[in-house]
Amino acid sequence: MRIQLGLEAVLAIGAFCAHCAAQSFQRLGTCPTLGCIIPPDQADFLPGQHFDIRAEVHAPLNGSEAIKGYTTPDPSFTLSIEREGGNAQPVSAFFNLPEPKLETWNFTWYEDLFAHAAKTPSQVRVASKAWRNVALYEPGQYIATLTYRNGSQTTVANWTVRDISPRQRAKNVVMFIGDGMTTNMITAARLIGHQSINGKYQTKMAMDQFPMLGHQMTHSIDSFITDSANSATALYSGHKSTVNALGVYADSSPNKFDDPKIESIAELFHRLRGGGVGIVSTAFIADATPAALTAHTRDRGQYGAVIDSFLRGITNYTWTNWTGPDVLFGGGAEQFYPGKGSFQGKDYYQEFASQNYTVVLNNTALQAADNSSKQLGIFSVSNMAKWLDRNVYPENLNKSSTAPDGSKAAATDQPGLKEMTLKALEVLQTRHGDKGFFIMSEAASIDKMMHVLDYDRALGELLELDDTIKATISWLRDAGELENTLVLVTADHGHGFDVMGSVDTHYLDTQKESREKRGAIGTYQNSGLSQYVLANRSAPIGSDQNLVYGPGVNFPANWDPRYTLYSGVAAFPDNREDYQVNKKGPRVPAINITGFSNEDFFVNYVDAVTGFIINGSLPVSADQGVHSLTDVPVFTRGPCTELFSGVFNSIDIFYGMAECLGLSRTSPS
């Protein structure tokens, strides 16, 4: 039976659902009641890990949560903590801290899409206190209890301090993050980079050869789809947070830098071991995945402040001691040269140089730099050039105003992920060969190219990651550090990508109608075999159809074969698709058209002229694809691999690395 509802009935349903658990919008993600404890219920901690606590009491003035006569939040609320089996104490007494001052503020939020469309926000008054830089040392269960509204209401948070031995089992950790990388993408990269004969691959990817494979669940604390900021926070700190949050639990205050912080793996390793820290990314270096190692803000877009946190750590509150990483390599020059993009308009090349960093701006200088000094390497404006453009279509690097010095020049001498990672390892080993090192190396543009539906470039970035892993294993072996090092390869989240067959691009290009063009797609037995590993010997050597690599290097010999991959993602904007490599640079699938709303995006015709239109599956405000729910792989080798088997939560990556490095502390000394 088909039921038709009038507008009044639809609005009534919307009003009714406002009383249900919030979905599209939330008053505060970790706070289903009007009393909020942060860290929230179910939080885990490493023994001795530093963190902040905040309590908030909310008084909604309107909307479904408003209580008649309750318009001022209780300023006399109390927060107590007890270890299970012990006695509850006020939090200030428990941590031997002075009582913090009471803070008050107001905020608004929308209860659902109906309220958002009608522009009728709910208003909330808040009373709050924050306790800074505390730690729990004794493993076990803890109960935090917030009492408010004159003692009539309570909120309870159950915390677990994990029982983790402080025994150190690894000297070093090398953490590779393929941003957005999924098992399906690895499978596709293997298909185009490794030759198969009669269904049997003749070579394997480096990560294929790791002895342990697990999978991690990537969901956020208050949504089942994550972003790179929140997911990186989980990987580095063992605490899930909210989308856009870096190293904090998001609170409701107007200040983007006062949210409750959690100490990261880099901060812990620096504080407790005094070892070296390396941060490497092909993204602009203030991007979420590198930023979450040192930044603490609920707004990942505070790029200038992120750069300052790399150098100085947290300066607005007492926090763990941080004197900067030994190595910081990536793009994002606009946050370094003085101007509107840099923090307070300062010259951050000079700021780093004044703290004894060697500053390098191209690959030539990088390779020549002294390994005994700290190094800052920034190689382009924005994200760094993609492997496909650096190695196959280098003319795409000739773009003005991309040079990292802020000039009108082009950044044509950029290192790749492998060059940056190997240099970082040399610096870390030279400076901290005795105490060990932690390095995070991110292949950022797997994700960035998946977002814009540029699957060729995304898979090229993934193959570059695998090539970097292979080179790193070789470097560690030669340095005598392989058996001392946990090497971990994972992703922060995934995209709904897969390969379903092949496409005869010659046939597609010659057809005039979209329905006829779709006939070029071959599935099942008509998918055939990978043509990417077969060079076109009639093409010039070194062209995109006849590429030659050294021994043991596995990239496509032919990036422009007749038969390409029929691949795609599940969530995408309106676009045209021709299933062929874009030789002029990364794709731009959807654009805004003059005369239409800035929130409306349409098919970009020139992105795939010979292709056909694919109607988008996302709202028209989307100009690129989005992340998906999928679990992502975790490959490990070296000490502690047994900690990463099976299917586990993303926060367990942090606890496994911390256990392997022996970072647990059962007393302050």
UniProtKB/TrEMBL annotation:
The active site is at 228 (phosphoserine intermediate). It holds the Pfam family Alk_phosphatase. GO terms for molecular function: alkaline phosphatase activity; metal ion binding. Its EC number is 3.1.3.1. Binds 1 Mg(2+) ion. Binds 2 Zn(2+) ions. Residues 1-22 form the signal peptide. Keywords: Magnesium, Metal-binding, Signal, Zinc. Zn(2+) binds at residues 179, 447, 451, 492-493, 627. Belongs to the alkaline phosphatase family. This is alkaline phosphatase.
